[in-house]
Design goal:
It is a single chain. The protein is mainly alpha-helical. The protein has one domain (about 1-90). Helix content is about 65%, strand content about 0%. It has four helices and no strands. The chain has helices at about 1-5, 15-30, 50-70, 70-90. Helix 3 packs across helix 4. The protein starts with a helix and ends with a helix. The model has no long low-confidence stretch (mean pLDDT about 85).
Length: about 90
């Protein structure tokens, strides 16, 4: 969504967004919390390099509000996960 709307990509992701996706997937695979990982904004472990964290934050700030309109079930699941994990973290 972000890449298409901001970089004009019509056939998949641009090179920069593909790199960011690959990096994020690798970080998720290596996450010590495994399947219990909360959403990144509620996580106590910051596993992204600062430059990549800034890039993903920019993508999420753009995509987050639009997610409810384009993919309401995914958006609701994200909000529930975010609220649930924030309420149980110290």
């Amino acid at each position: 969504m972000y890449c298409r709307d901001n970089h004009g990509s019509t056939q998949g992701l641009c090179e920069g967004c593909a790199e960011l996706l690959e990096y994020a997937e690798e970080r998720l695979k290596r996450c010590p919390m495994g399947e219990n990982k909360p959403v990144c904004s509620a996580c106590t472990i910051h596993c992204y390099r600062p430059d990549m964290r800034d890039r993903i934050r920019k993508v999420m700030r753009y995509s987050g509000p639009r997610l409810m309109k384009r993919h309401p079930v995914t958006g609701i699941m994200y909000l529930l996960k975010k609220k649930f994990f924030r309420s149980i973290t110290p």
